Amino acid sequence: MSLAQPPEPVEIKLRISELYKALSKELGNRALGLAVWSGSILARYLWEYWGPELRRQGISWPRFLSFLKSYTGLIARWAIDGSLSWEQLTEQVAEGLRGSRRMGLDRYFSQP
Questions:
Q1: For residue range 33-90, what is the model confidence (pLDDT) as tens digits?
Q2: How far from chain centre, in Å, is Cα 9?
Q3: CA distance linking residue 14 with residue 106, whole number of Å
C-alpha cells in the first residue's frame, strides 16, 4: 500500500494547538485528546488524501478512526509541542496502516 504524504495542514496544527491551550487551563492533560480529536479535523484531512487507497485495501472510515486514535500522542507531539515533524508523523501513521492491514484475516490469505 502506497500512501503519498499530504501537504502539512498548518491551519489544522494551529487550531489543535490553540484549542489545547484554551482547554488545558481547566482540564489539564485531559485537554490533549479533546484538542486532537475536536471535529476529527486531522482525521478528515488525512482521509481526504488516503481514503481512496485505504478503501481499496478494505479499511473503512470507522476502522481508520479507530486506528488513528492510537496515534493521539504522536499527533499532539506534532501539533502541540512541535517535537515531531509532519513528515515523521505521517510516515509513522502510514507505516502503522500498512502493518494493520496484515492484522486481519487478509494476513492468512495473502501468505504464500
A1: 999 999 999 999 999 999 999 999 999 999 999 999 999 999 999 999 999 999 999 9
A2: 12
A3: 38
- Using alpha carbons, select from 59, 51, 44, 49 the residue that is nearest to residue 104: 59
Q: What is the C-alpha end-to-end distance of the chain, expressed in Å?
A: 18
Alpha-carbon distance of 77 to 74, in angstroms, equals: 5
Look at the chain and count its residues: 112
Q: Please state, as a whole number, how many other Cβ atoms lie within 10 Å of the Cβ of residue 104.
A: 12
Residue with cell 478528515: 44
- Quote the longest CA-to-CA distance of the chain: 55
103 DSSP 8-state letter? G
- Residue 49 CA to residue 53 CA, distance in Å, equals 9
